[in-house]
Design goal:
three-stranded antiparallel beta sheet; 2 helices
């Protein structure tokens, strides 16, 4: 039996503000979201950009990220330390 994973997405405006802060700190940030049709977890290939919609490479559905929310991952350079805030 496989367990369905529940990803944690935050309201779009909150995540976008946090991403912007991290980019301003010099980190590389990739937006993440969950396809509202099939549940696949997706990461945007273009860093440091906030998208309002995203297409799924599995089912082709376009998710309204403003409505469903999102999260992000950040990449710090070696020795850069921790950002001031993150999800």
């Amino acid at each position: 039996m496989t367990k369905k994973i529940k990803y944690r997405d935050f309201p779009f405006e909150d995540a976008a503000a946090a991403m912007e802060d991290l980019v301003n700190e010099g980190l590389t940030v990739h937006q993440k979201f969950t396809c509202e049709a099939c549940g696949q977890r997706l990461t945007m290939a273009i860093p440091n950009k906030i998208f309002e919609t995203g297409g799924c490479d599995k089912c082709g559905h376009v998710t309204d990220i403003r409505k469903t929310g999102c999260n992000y991952l950040y990449i710090a350079k070696l020795g850069q330390g921790s950002p001031s805030r993150h999800h």
